[in-house]
Amino acid sequence: MPQLLIELFSEEIPARMQVRAAADLKTRVTNGLVEAGLTYAGAESFCTPRRLVLVVDGVLDASPTLREERKGPKVGAPDKAVEGFLRGAGLTRADLEERETPKGAVFFAMIEKPGRPAAEIVAEVLTDVIRQFPWPKSMRWGTGALRWVRPLQSILCILSDDAGPSPVPLEIDGMVAGDTTEGHRFMAPGRFSVSNFEDYTAKLKRAFVLLSAQERAQHIWADATNMAFSAGLEMVEDKGLLAEVAGLVEWPVVLMGEIGAEFLELPPEVLQTSMREHQKFFSVRNPKSGRIEKFVTVANRETADHGATILAGNQKVLSARLADAKFFWENDLRTIKTVGLEGMAGPLSEVTFHNKLGSQKARVTRIEALARHLAPMVGAKPDLAAEAARVCKADLASEMVYEFPELQGVMGRYYAVAAGHDDGVPEACEAHYSPLGPSDDVPTAPVSVAVALADKIDILTGFWAIDEKPTGSKDPFALRRAALGVIRLVLENDLRLDLASAVRKADILVAENADGIVGPSASGYIHDLLSFIHDRLKVYLRDQGIRHDVIDASLAMPGNDDLTLLVTRARALSETLATDDGENLIQGFKRANNLLTQAEEADGVEYSFGPDPKFADTQSERSLFAALDRAEAVIAPAMEAEDFAQAMAAMADLRGPIDAFFEDVKVNDENQTLRRNRLNMLHRIRGLCLEVADLTKIEG
Amino acid sequence: MTDIATAPRSFQEIILRLQTYWAAKGCAILQPYDMEVGAGTFHPATTLRSLGSRPWAAAYVQPSRRPTDGRYGENPNRLQHYYQYQVLIKPSPPDLQELYLGSLEAIGIDMGLHDIRFVEDDWESPTLGAWGLGWEVWCDGMEVSQFTYFQQVGGHDCHPISGELTYGLERLAMYVLGVDHVMDMPFNDPQTPIPLSYGDIFRQTEEEYARYNFDSANTDVLLRQFQEAEAECAALLAQEDIDPKTGRRIIMAHPAYDQCIKASHIFNLLDARGVISVTERQAYIGRVRALAKQCADAFVRTKAGGHAA
Q1: Is B68 on the interface with A (CB under 8 A)?
Q2: Residue A599 and residue A506 in one domain
């Protein structure tokens, strides 16, 4: 069966778009073929900076002929009806067949859709795919109307089988598809023809093109690690950069170069960032010292001088870049030496954080007061937390961070050390941005935790105060991330923190520091902000396998501003519900609750008088009395000690006596005294259970 | 870096070679525009001529000014006044990449020894209301040119599409000549009786302009000039198409565009003086863009802009 080979050859495709484009080419072409009846055995797509390639194996020669029987009007129906049917089916009267049916003689027609040759289908499908290709951004060129990511230069499209290749007749905007392609732009100029995929990849390789991006990446990484190893060094892993670089070359040649000695004292993060962002160089590290000592660059070609010219050029560019970085580093250190870190932070009063929330300086002032307020709750010294908060954003005013925004925090740490801070302050300058995502590490050092919490609570409170909350997919200030950060900081550090009071404190600070733009709103939005945080908590706990109704049952309890308490309760409840007793207890509780609620509604009274054991008529009632006494004796002190597991275990122990009670006793007895007493008993069950969690929220 | 036999010896030789090369490829070699601009793109030979249906091929050197980049002549790579070499061909020829590579060869870059790369770089000029797709061209890791297919200019979709090449001349020449500090670069042939370096010609002016741009330019005057240019641009475009004196249809697209260029440069100066806040910045850019758009609207109604009548 034939093999289809397609190559769309263009001017350089942006590296970041290649992988997706290769996948799109495969899906769109194969879907199109199948829709047209052309099945295939397998397909694979590839990309290089200049080409998108698809090979489809085992394609049918032609789509199968389809036969369809269509029922027409009755024999003897008006001519108009018959003609209409013939028109719709594309037939003539001679093609019709009369057949007897239970409803009389009816015209039938056989419509045959003849199969079409593969080449015809491929040409149609590929034309459509090219015209509607989902590039993130596309363009026109010259006088044409066709759009592609960059000018499309040639199309190779052949079907090949044992008899040999045959080009698929195809023309788009004057470009005729053929069986030729080009090799490496510089190392093997000129076009050549290919007969099938095997021939294509072999000839490309001879023409210095490695078709597979994966192969290029492997080649780069293998050569780079070998080179580093023989120099007694190691590569700094960077998968993102490796994928990007593999998309920038057709013929990767790995070169290792020197970093000028005068730059080796720069922080490794600075070297790495500068080399990665500007030059797409890998960093090579000395495993003993941890210092970045060399770089690896990937050229797109071999040269007669074995890359000497290329390497010299790259080294020169790097030196210029690092000279800039060194200049910023030294200037920043000089600034710190003369005016201190707080002096460096001075210009932040000129930088607007948000026009309703004042400058960055105003924000730092709020974070400082809030960090001081929170410090005792996280085990940090208030003065240290305040000191850290005061300088935590200073690096935003540094030249280095202006040039490399991604180094914010990291530079803060270096500069805090340079300014003579210690006792956890430098670490806080870096760590207070964390956690940035669900899998990011959470700071644990108390000073870092205090500043990190203050930073996030301030941003949440501030934007709630000015009513700029996230809506739908819009969250320009990353407030969801901030809320998740608060949650993870509290939970993963086991902090006992009254979130509502922290927010109230933040609210007052916002009002004080916003030049009167925002007045203190007290409880105005605090409830809304807390329920936003609770919503994020639900998402977070759901990811950990805790059911939403369990969370609701815990949220409904007092003290839910204390996230640690809330989650301890939810986890205990979740574990209890996982046991047989726990699950059945819920049923018993619900039955008790339903009966009681109905009776209370019907009677218009509340049965909260307390049951009297002397009216306990049956053994199971007496057992339940005893069990409730036992449970109460355990639950009250356990709740006092916040030992939810113990409280819930005691609650789950009620399952047997409650089940037996419902088994043996009719609550709505004719004897009103007994009935009242039993309803009061149910009330006691409900009250006891509801002390632990709001079980009415549990589903099922 | 380069083959000795073909290596250029000075900054001006590189410029002359580019001129010769692009002249041979059929470009009209224009002279710099006689106004202060931030980049070669601002020359009407690019901005306006990329609009409309008429074919166009031009190449020129354009002195460019970026007041905020001034470093008193001390930084090896940064200047507030520098030169761009600009090529604009409409419609973009199918072999524009090859033509471009040929120009690198012409200035002495040996294609057999260097690693030339086309790295994604989308170009956008918020002040011109223009964007295009293309690359920055890297030679051994250094950006030596910008290569752009214009898609929209002054808010108008381009048709046909122009191909634009921009060479940062100082940087490119420093690389080709193997010079580390721009001020050390030979401007004319170092073997001549009076050899002049780039520094001999520009070190003092870089100092003078850095002081002017950063500290001395009178911002009140500049603010007023900005408003005047803006008003003049609008006033010129508001005139009737038919000139009452000659009775001819004369749309003053170019004089109006001069005012747009002026406003743009004044904005850059105000920016360097640090008197434009972050929020105002956007507003100023929007005002210049509005002028550029009006000029583009006017130009496409002229003969050079493809207007039939």
Answers
A1: no
A2: no
CATH code of the domain covering residue A462: 1.10.3210
At A107, the amino acid letter reads F
- The beta strand positions in chain B, using DSSP E, are 28-29, 56-65, 81-90, 116-120, 123-125, 130-139, 142-153, 156-157, 163-168
Evaluate whether A453 touches A486 at the Cβ level (below 8 Å).
yes
Residues 408 through 467 of chain A touching chain B, CB cutoff 8 Å:
none
Question: How far does A326 lie from chain B, in Å, by closest CA?
Answer: 13
- Residue A171 shares a structural domain with residue A298: no
Tokens of A252: 């990767």
Q: Which of A177, A330, A194 is nearest to A265 (CA)?
A: A330
3-state secondary structure of A519: coil
In terms of residue numbers, what domain contains A317? 219-331
Mutate to test the interface with A, among B71, B115, B153, B170 (most CBs of A within 10 A): B115
SS3 labels along A51-73: EEEEEEECCCCECCCEEEEEEEE
Could you tell me how far CA A543 lies from the centroid of its own chain?
13
Asked whether residue A7 is assigned to any structural domain, the reply reads yes
Indicate whether A596 belongs to any domain.
Answer: yes
Q: Are residues A95 and A8 in the same domain?
A: no
Cβ–Cβ contact B72 with A under 8 A: no
User: Mind telling me how many Å the CA of A231 is from chain B's nearest CA?
Assistant: 23
pLDDT in tens, A323-342: 888 988 998 999 999 999 98
Q: Report whether A281 contacts A295 (CB < 8 A).
A: yes
User: Residue A177 has what pLDDT?
Assistant: 97
A613 close to A607: Cβ distance less than 8 angstroms: no
Q: Helix/strand/coil (H, E, C) string of A375-388?
A: HHHHCCCHHHHHHH
Give the up-direction half-sphere exposure of residue A649: CA atoms within 13 A in the CB hemisphere: 6
For A64-118, the pLDDT digits (tens) are 998 888 888 888 888 888 888 888 878 888 888 888 888 888 988 888 888 999 9
CB proximity list for B60: less than 8 A, separation 6 or greater: B29, B30, B31, B32, B40, B43, B45, B85, B86
Q: Tell me, what's the pLDDT at B2?
A: 45
Residue B90 three-state SS: strand
Task: Show residues of chain B in contact with A16, CB under 8 Å.
Answer: 120
In a domain, A370, yes or no: yes
- Flag if B113 and A355 touch (Cβ within 8 Å): no
Beta-carbon contacts of B191 under 8 Å, excluding residues fewer than 6 positions away, are: B9
Under 8 Å between Cβ of B121 and B136: yes
Close Cβ partners of B76 (under 8 Å, ≥ 6 residues apart)? A320, A323, B180, B181, B182, B183
Largest CA distance in chain A: 108
Domain count across chain A: 5
Of A141, A154, A251, A319, which to mutate for an interface test with B (greatest number of B Cβ within 10 Å)? A141
Establish if B93 touches chain A: CB-CB under 8 angstroms: yes
| Sheet of strand A104-113, all strands in order from the earlier edge strand to the far edge | A66-74, A104-113, A97-101
What 3-state DSSP class applies to B153?
strand
Asked if residue A71 and residue A51 are part of one domain, the reply reads: no
Q: How far apart are CA B14 and CA B9, in angstroms?
A: 8
State the ipTM, two decimals: 0.93
Q: Give the type of residue at A85.
A: F
**A389/A471 same-domain check:** yes
Output the average pLDDT for chain A.
91
List CB contacts (< 8 A) between B102 and chain A.
none
What is the domain-level CATH number for residue A608? 1.10.730.10
Q: Do A256 and A304 belong to one domain? A: yes
Looking at beta carbons, which residues of chain A come within 8 Å of B279? 352, 355
Residue A562 belongs to a domain: no
Pair A89, A170 in one domain: no
A439, two tokens: 């899998």
Please indicate, yes or no, whether residues A353 and A471 belong to a single structural domain of this protein: yes
